[in-house]
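Table S2 (continued). Query chain:
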Amino acid sequence: MASVRDRVVDLVRAASILVVVLGHWTMGALTQDATGAVSVRNVLEVSPLLQAATWLFQVMPLFFFAAGFANATSLWHGRSLRLFLSGRIDRVLRPVLPFLVVWLVLAQVLVWAGVPHRLVVTAGANAAMVLWFLAVYLLLALVAPAQVEVHRRHPWALVLLLPPVALALDQLQGTPWAGVGLLNYVVVFAFCQQLGILYADGRLLRWPPRAWWAGVALALLLLVVATGPGPYPVSMIGLPGQEMSNMLPPSVCVVLVAVLQVSLVMLLRSHLLRWLQQAWLWKATVAVNLSVLTVFLWHLTAFVTVAGVALALEVPLPEPGSLLWWGHKLVWVLACAAVTVLLVLLLRGAERTQRVEVAGRWAVAATVLAVVGLAMVAAAGFADPFSSGGVTLAGQQFAAAPGAVLVAAGWLLSRRPTVSRPAVAQVPGGGGA
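Corresponding output:
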């Protein structure tokens, strides 16, 4: 069994979040039509040759691989279900709650200040988008104890079972049963989590390099088939106009991406361990992990802030994907990074606050409330907090304010202090027990 602290897992977690952040900043393309209407497009829409790059840079599978390692080691090292879930809820929601308060207030202030409603809608939707991932993260924490128990009895069962289930659920996209297909958020990322559990118990470490090279080759071959003659889009990020999506909800192609990416990590593992002996790289990894949630929560707010300044100053907006657009993009990314650093310095306190460990009596119910609330806010956006709108999930639209209330209720319900001691620095899916 692997130790509780694994430096490669820490690096994978930190790097995966940074790749997501840089990906959002890079792919986001602010546009303004002749009427002055502003929208945010994805550069992959106009640069299809870049879509295959998402097989490497859509790294959510790696994050849930790291989460699987951490969830398994936490449960194996004596944490009860209540303590485990309460810890995960507290770790995630402490920085989320101020984020919700700030944006619910800010959206109304922008409207009262005379900012056009369509801009507030765009800003609020983009800022709230990060919360869907945290909803899935807590949902995976909820199923982790059952996965660990199945793993104890039949270690490879879920690795074999989950991909065909994901493939079957894919067939529901675009049908009246599409809402059932949302189960793939659990099925696909539970597969990624299961790979992390297998890594945690040392099974993946026993495989020779040739097995991982075979994993890379097989995953690439199946991805080419699935996205070539097969019906799936090349991009692992949802784009307008697609008949099927690889991420909304995740498809079986994300399973193949997980195999590809984990195989590459295992091939590079010895090199990564050697590199992590360098003090600067390890310190940077620790620093990112200590503020990883704050970075993730606020990086799209930074994007919105930079976009607002650009519009206020009437900065010309080049055609997305053009040479001039790519030339501007470096300045754009640096500006977003500067704003994010400032926000992290101001707001990281919630993430680093010492916590009282609890074993919440209603930890399972609290997790469900938090998951539902986060999903509601992510779908609705912040522009009209008391009105249903935004993205439709399973045929329903939601309002942000009730969702935020459920998130707060979930956090409060999970709190029943039992023992007070200094908190161990953790991250979502963190290696600390």
